[in-house]
Predict the 3D structure of the following.
Amino acid sequence: MMPHQANVAGNIHGGEIIKLMDSTAYATARRYARTNVVTARVDEVEFHLPIFIGDLVICTAQVVYVGNSSMEIVVIVEVEDLETEGKKRALTAFFTMIALDKKGRPTKVPELTLETEEEKRAFEEGRLRYERHKHKK
Ligand SMILES: CC(C)(COP(=O)(O)OP(=O)(O)OC[C@H]1O[C@@H](n2cnc3c(N)ncnc32)[C@H](O)[C@@H]1OP(=O)(O)O)[C@@H](O)C(=O)NCCC(=O)NCCS
């Protein structure tokens, strides 16, 4: 993290990290769907720890739920102080990305293969959030 990404106290702006998370969710969904994708929703953004100038930030993501054209991606940001050992979880969020066809209309995405118990649990949690959004709409 660089000085231009921080406030005067040296804390990195939340928006800088959200942008990184959105780009990571985009790449993950784009690779999964093999079509253009857009962000429709972000749920449960949590800032667990502050991030400072000079920290190394590692952003990872995984598809946890798929509907018809929607994909829910969990994005995890870890922060590493390069002067000490170990990484700590700094942020988490769930991004809902929608696959679009060449005409910009929502299009079907592949089924998600679930192997581990953790993946099955994450899928069920994603399904609950998906149904809540549908219900509200
Ligand atoms: C996302 C978008 C394509 C959805 O269009 P729409 O006409 O509402 O499409 P539909 O009603 O057919 O829904 C398509 C899918 O999107 C999901 N969806 C739409 N709005 C959603 C929302 N606010 N939250 C979560 N999911 C949403 C639907 O549940 C549906 O999922 P499914 O196919 O898996 O069942 C449209 O709202 C859009 O283009 N938004 C702007 C996206 C954008 O530009 N993002 C960049 C950041 S500014």
